[in-house]
Each structure stands twice: as structure tokens, then as C-alpha cells.
Amino acid sequence: MLTQLRFAKDLDIFQKEVPYEVFGYPTPTSDRITNCVFETIEPIEIQDVRASSENHSLDTSGFTYIRHQSQCEIKAEHFERAGSSLEKNPVVLAYLDETIKLVKDQLDAKKVICFDWRFRRTGAPPSVVPEVDDTYDIRLQALAPGLDIHCDFSHRGGLERIEMHLLPDELEAVNRGELSAKIINVWRPLGVVKNAPLIITDRRTVLQEDLMEVEKVLPDKVERAYYLKYQPYHKYYYMSSQGPEDVAFFTTWDLKKGDRTAEIPPHGAASFFADDYLENPRESIEVRLIVLFQE
Known about the structure:
InterPro entries: AsaB-like (IPR044053). The protein is α+β, with helices and mostly antiparallel strands. The protein is built from four helices and 16 strands. The strands form four sheets. The chain has a five-stranded mixed beta sheet, with no helix packed on it. The chain has a five-stranded antiparallel beta sheet with strand order 4-14-9-16-5, with helices on both faces. Strand 11 (211-217) and strand 12 form a beta hairpin. The chain is globular, with a radius of gyration of 18 Å. The termini are far apart.
């Protein structure tokens, strides 16, 4: 498949300023919400994993696909505007519990912690998430697919994230090398994907210097992520006609930082849409999990 993808540009201003973006403020106080600039590159070849003889895994390319039928009623109505309080959303809670067990079984993990989830839909408006009881909650609306090729966490950002969620004894065990840690994204479409499919880069084709750390300024915290700078040697993959039983696993942070090449695969969505994308939108649910392994 040939398509177009969006990448961050490396600018001279970054010699003086940290790359940043502002997210989630209902009433921004300034028109300047980012100093990042993006470029769209085309045509870019995306390989279909269904037609590929390559074996992909978290340890090799940084991603894999598994077949799994959810026992939950995974419909948009359960996830859109669910919010973080799950007591009134038993379907969402059941799906998160199911995903935790799936990851633990598939990866033979010691412990799996779900700390975040997102619901996305093509055609969703820009994210301007309202405050509820003075609390920022990104789960109060459908989010648009992330078209910029990125990694959810930089190496520093992932360390800060696990420090937020691990117990003191778990963090000490990680620091002593008794436990290893990853952050995994489990991505599942709610129907067959016909537009804006998930695109994942083979991490082995990405050099550390191709990643640009960006500070994402949120109402309650600052997260550090990576954007990918375009290089012609990167290799990209997707799954054609990906359905609800075709679940993507990909690493979004790894304690073991790569030396020359990236330890995690940048990902995003292809910037192409079927004519009926509003009537037949791509809807997906992604779950972000800290996974601990016994060393």
C-alpha cells in the first residue's frame, strides 16, 4: 500500500527551545500551542503483515498481532464519554480487566498495571476536553486518530510514568535489576478498519537520532514523548482489513534503552480516508499498560 504519513521537522529553534505542544485546555490563554512543525511525505510504502513472511514480535520489530475474541460488548456507546470513574461503566471495566489478563498470559508477565485507555474515531473534533469537578479527563469524548508518527513516551518520559504508578518496593526492584519493565499498548478496532489504519514502524530501522523528544503540556502534568523525523530507510507495517479479533501489541517504552537503534516502534495512523469515513468511521480502543517481568 502507498500512502502519506506525517512527521515532525527538526528546526533551528530547538537549539534554544524545547519542542512542546499544549493539550486539553478548554480555553487556551494563548494562540501559540506548539513550536513543532510537521511535514507530510508521500508516497510511502506500507507493508501488509498479512502478506508478509516476516515474523514480528515485541523483542524483534517491537510489535505483534494476535487473534483474540473479546468476551465484552465492545461497542462505541460503552467507551465514548465513559470518563475515568468506571463504577458506572461495567463494560469498560470488564474490558480493561480482560486486557490485563490477556497481556499477562501472552507475555508471561509477573504483573500488569493498566494506567490509561483511549477511544478514537475518525471525524472526531480536535481534543478540547472539559473539566469535570476540576479534573482533566481525556476519556470524556472520542479522540481523532493520531496522524503524526510518534512514540507515546520518550525514555525519560517512560521513567517518569512508571514512577507515578509503581509501588515503592516495585520501583526499588526495577532499579536493582530484579524486575524489568515495559509499557505496552494493546490496540483493538471496534469494527473492520476501512480508513486511517494503524501504522507501526519496525523499530530496528529507526536510529536514536531520528527521534525528537517533545514536551506535551497537559492541565495536570507534563508528559515527554517522541516524534519521528522522516528518513527513507524506515520500514512501516499495517494489517489490511484489521477487525476486532486482530489485536495489535506494541511497545511504547522499554527500560532497556537501545544504543544505536530505537528500542520502541514509532506508530500513528495513515492519512487516507475512504469516501464514507464519517458514515463508516474507524473506531478503536487502546489500552496502555505497565508490564513487569522477573529477571
